[in-house]
């Protein structure tokens, strides 16, 4: 489970301009939430 979560953090951190190696789990959760809500706000 740890590696799956880290993979999600890497995918979310890169476009947001964060270094995933320097992110804590809490920071990662915030970035993932931000990315998901930003993508949901875009209408197709």
From TrEMBL:
Source taxon at top rank: Bacteria
Protein name per Swiss-Prot or TrEMBL: Uncharacterized protein
Organism, as annotated: Micromonospora haikouensis
């Amino acid at each position: 489970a740890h590696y799956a979560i880290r993979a999600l953090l890497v995918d979310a951190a890169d476009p947001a301009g964060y270094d995933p190696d320097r992110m804590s789990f809490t920071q990662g959760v915030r970035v993932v939430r931000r990315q998901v809500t930003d993508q949901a706000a875009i209408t197709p």
